[in-house]
Automatic annotation (TrEMBL):
The lineage of its organism: Eukaryota, Viridiplantae, Streptophyta, Embryophyta, Tracheophyta. Gene3D superfamilies: Phosphorylase Kinase, domain 1, Transferase(Phosphotransferase) domain 1. This is non-specific serine/threonine protein kinase. GO terms for biological process: auxin-activated signaling pathway; cotyledon development. Belongs to the protein kinase superfamily. AGC Ser/Thr protein kinase family. Residues 83-413 form the Protein kinase domain.
Length: 456
């Protein structure tokens, strides 16, 4: 994914996400002439058919069906000529994103025009990136997109090259981002239950990324997009860090003794069941029936990953990054705390008049909340969770050791079934109210949004 460029104080073109209500979003009404400067020299390098073995996350993925229909019977994959660009919807220092559709609208409900078969095509000028020495960022994003297969993360539908341009075709979200959506809420903040829903889905997405060894490093409302069904999708992975993670099943501190009866192989009583058990054991000697204790935790956290890169967005970076030290997986849990704080209270806790003062506050200023006392028990739980996530010491920060396994069990999420979170009705469903909308919220430089940076 890509964000529209904003210029940071250091002169480096940074990445930003579109604000649907901002007059600064210059990408929302441009015609196809806006991309006429792009010249693709043929022949193009097509994507290979094996690159199109996508695993769609929804049974009614019309965009995926259209891609499959377009490539049916072909010996080669898609190319730039298979798409028609509708308008530019984002640009930044590592490329440009266009809203596009298949030229013949293959397989999309008879070619009816709607957002279900719209795509986001990111076009990267490799020669420009080489001059900027940021080729690694584009390569990292492409590498990560190929790894992802999750309902709250982007689907990569196709990739190909044309001349010195590299193109990737991704999932398109018509619902905007949580930054712009927050500004449309009363008092520009979400209700506690809405914030809990979005935080839970982001938590599930982070859990999957960490399971793959990916540290996101740029979580903020601008990078959390909203699909037409109201569920979220994380975007922008060019600042992410890939490491090695080993998923494991861990016992909690209160686990009973491994030799206790609840952890031993279950033996059926004597009689018919016992004879059946012996027969089964002879036929399938390697199979064992065991009880699974309820206090087992799935832990897949890249705790050994370390980086010294100064990356992120000023208001969301962790103290270890702000102070110039090395960092690891704990930075994502810090940013989740900032993310929740902003959704609930309408702003970030350490923001100041300048980036330098913001970074100083992150390192030294204690965490405070807008009011002295919480208004409800749920807000009290929210504050406790945020305080745990915003612990300035990354070694004892909530989530730093066991990741999502620690965060999910917090009382703030009590009663929420994470395994069935996709079945929960979202607080707002853009597909109902914005069905005719054609403006992309992928990326723009809306007023008041946060600026990502990367100093290597």
């Amino acid at each position: 994914m890509l964000n529209c460029g904003r210029r940071d104080s250091d002169g480096d073109t940074s990445l930003e996400t579109a604000n649907s209500g901002s007059s600064h979003s210059s990408m929302s009404s441009e015609s196809c002439s806006s991309f006429s400067r792009i010249s693709f020299d043929l022949p193009t390098c097509r994507s290979s058919p094996e690159n199109l073995t996508i695993k769609p996350h929804r049974s009614s993925d019309f965009a995926y069906s259209a891609i499959r229909s377009a490539t049916f019977g072909r010996k080669s994959g898609l190319s730039f000529r298979d798409f028609r660009l509708l308008r530019r919807i984002g640009s930044g220092d590592i490329g440009t994103v266009y809203l596009c559709r298949l030229s013949n609208d293959h397989g999309c409900d008879g070619g009816r025009v709607d957002d279900r078969c719209s795509y986001a095509m990111k076009v990267v000028d490799k020669e420009v990136l080489a001059v900027k020495k940021k080729v690694h960022r584009a390569e990292m994003e492409r590498k990560i997109l190929k790894m992802l297969d999750h309902p709250f993360l982007p689907t990569l539908y196709a990739e190909f090259e044309a001349s010195h341009f590299s193109c990737i075709v991704m999932e398109y979200c018509c619902g905007g981002d949580l930054h712009s959506l927050r500004h449309r809420q009363p008092r520009k903040r979400f209700s506690l239950y809405s914030a809990r829903f979005y935080a839970a889905e982001v938590l599930v997405a982070l859990e999957y990324l960490h399971m793959l060894g990916i540290i996101y490093r740029d979580l903020k409302p601008e990078n959390v997009l909203v699909r037409s069904d109201g569920h979220i999708m994380l975007s922008d992975f060019d600042l992410s860090l890939c490491s090695d993670a080993i998923p494991a099943v861990e016992s909690s501190a209160s686990s009973p003794d491994p030799a206790s009866p609840s952890n031993l192989t279950y033996n059926r009583p004597h009689g018919t069941a016992s004879r059946f058990s012996r027969l089964r054991n002879r036929l399938f000697p390697s199979k064992k029936v065991q009880n699974v204790t309820p206090n087992r935790l799935f832990v897949a956290e890249p705790v050994a990953a370390k980086s010294s890169s100064f990356v992120g967005t000023h208001e969301y970076v962790s103290p270890e990054v702000a102070s110039g030290g090395s960092h690891g997986n704990a930075v994502d849990w810090w940013s989740l705390g900032i993310f929740m704080y902003e959704l609930i209270y309408g702003g970030t806790p350490f923001a100041a008049a300048s980036n330098e003062m913001t970074l100083r506050n992150i390192v030294k200023k204690p965490l405070t909340f807008p009011t002295h006392a919480p208004s409800s028990a749920l807000e009290s739980h929210a504050r406790d969770l945020i305080s745990g996530l915003l612990n300035k010491d990354p070694n004892i920060r909530l989530g730093s050791k066991r990741g999502s396994a620690e965060v999910k069990t917090h009382p703030f999420f009590k009663g929420l079934n994470f395994a069935l979170i996709r079945m929960v009705t979202p607080p707002e469903i853009p597909g109902l109210s914005l069905k005719k909308q054609t403006t992309s919220f992928y990326h723009g430089n809306g007023k008041g949004q946060s600026t990502a940076f990367d100093y290597f």
